[in-house]
């Protein structure tokens, strides 16, 4: 098990789950060509929930969260984010994308812009925030992820862990109500995984609604209030983390857990 | 070797070694010569042979160039000067350049107005400054936008109201776009194209006539067929370069688009334009284009050539930019999408800056080719520098002069193309971000 989060006290005071629904997915199906990637997904996420999605590679977990901000298009069923249904209406898509932050495995920072410009770009162009104000917000979040001194460097000059923290700050600058993480630590060295997970835990402590595709089971046990296990494009099992790890029900889950926790 | 070998015994390092400078080797010119020219006896031999070849070539060329004929007034005068100096060997006759350099630069432009194209060149260089180097005050950009109209006015003359009225069309387009983009983006774009076109077709002509009769301010008009020489090459080359870059980018985006019709139209345009030689397009411009235009419109030949050369180079630029677009990682598009940027925003702010940076060498390469290809207008009867050499030889004074003129023209083109190449290197260096 990852040691990255073991020695940390989690402040649970603000980690409240409300009754309000943030994301509602009903009977959602997706195909890549003829390949049925996501099969009949039903998932409701309440505001303030922190969900970890795990599963073997190719199980469709990344595709699932990429459908939530329409980086992938679903072919049938319904995805409702913050009360807005995802359809091919571009206005709805842009609205949802500006409300939902996303962090990628390979960061996807813009290499031709400085860290500060990376963070202020979307607020200035999408939210029409004045430049000064956007820069102040960006510095606030860069301080939060503990790299304000790198603001005027370019992404290529930063380490992987720093780049991922910038990516998180960049998403936060849009003041999203939901954060999606697509394997945020998979491309990082062990020393850098900790600094990124610390940032994510802080975010959880502030009550952010989070969906994380990750194999950091330590993180899942520390902050998640639900763990979802996917295989072959389906949700195979979901439970609160303690029960999920200590008392898995399905054989597939047991096998998966024994493989990733076994050594 | 130290006693405690890390591989053979348990070993703990007690102190970390600080960075140390590399060992000082012998430096200086002797080392450079030995390493670069004579590292082995075979390489040394090659060096000597190479030096010999260079010497042979130069020893034949330089005497031709060094020739006391600058003051000659005709080819026979040249021969007299050379014979008088006791030099029987064949040498250049530079008198033709001194006598005709103005014609090579300006063609048959009226000589009392040479200051106008010269001033236009200054305006062009000043106008390009902020575009090329980007660290000028902001108001200077306004000058850059106005400079094409100013250059047009200086070179062609006529009433000053014509370029102002044409520029007004662009301003109207911007206003129409601003006013209607709120309604719908596509309506805005259509209005931005339709309003100026209608204005140019129906309103501008009477407007210019009225203004010219009220306030007849202007320069003496110079007809297009009086333009020639290097002036013509620069006018065609620079206009085509400036116009073909945005057009090429739009074509590249069209080709990469998800919209079926847009993609096919772009591909069709690019392939047809690329698949036919430029010279054929130039003949089309000079002969055929008038059939397609409404009767009565007498479209200026220079303008038609500029349009053709622009379309031709835009097709090439589009393919170069497409390569750049393909090289931008998919993650960049997704990063931009996930932040809620619209298609045009993500292209303008994220994708194109990176794609164009990758494409710089190819784009400049295309522009250099385009600039040299402007000499092809010779075949449709425009007097580019090469065309003028025929005109110069037609005079009895200089009948038989070839190389001197070609060398002069070659040097002019080399200066222009070499500057473009250097600028491309400068830009690549300036935009180098990753490993700085």
UniProtKB/TrEMBL annotation, chain A:
Q: Name one GO molecular function term.
A: ATP hydrolysis activity
Q: Which domain of life is it from?
A: Bacteria
Instruction: Write out the entry's keywords from A to Z.
Output: ATP-binding, Nucleotide-binding, Transport
Q: What InterPro entries does UniProt report for this protein, alphabetically?
A: AAA+_ATPase, ABC_ATPase_HisP-typ, ABC_transporter-like_ATP-bd, ABC_transporter-like_CS, MetN_ABC_transporter-like, P-loop_NTPase
Record-annotated ABC transporter domain positions: 23-257
Cross-referenced Pfam families: ABC_tran
- Coiled-coil residue spans: none
Cite the CDD domains for this sequence.
ABC_HisP_GlnQ (cd03262)
Q: Which residues form the signal peptide?
A: none
Recorded hits in PANTHER family, A to Z, give: AMINO ACID IMPORT ATP-BINDING PROTEIN (PTHR43166), PHOSPHONATES IMPORT ATP-BINDING PROTEIN PHNC (PTHR43166:SF4)
Q: Which family does it belong to?
A: Belongs to the ABC transporter superfamily.
Q: What is this protein called?
A: L-glutamine ABC transporter ATP-binding protein /L-glutamate ABC transporter ATP-binding protein /L-aspartate ABC transporter ATP-binding protein /L-asparagine ABC transporter ATP-binding protein
Organism of origin is Loktanella salsilacus
TrEMBL record, chain B:
| GO biological processes | amino acid transport
Spell out the subcellular localization from the entry.
Cell inner membrane; Cell membrane
Record membrane topology:
Multi-pass membrane protein
The alphabetized UniProt keywords are:
Cell membrane, Membrane, Transmembrane, Transmembrane helix, Transport
Query: Which branch of life, at top level?
Result: Bacteria
Report the transmembrane regions from the record.
Answer: 41-66, 113-132, 186-208, 228-253, 265-289, 301-321, 402-423
Q: What is this protein called?
A: L-glutamine ABC transporter membrane protein /L-glutamate ABC transporter membrane protein /L-aspartate ABC transporter membrane protein /L-asparagine ABC transporter membrane protein
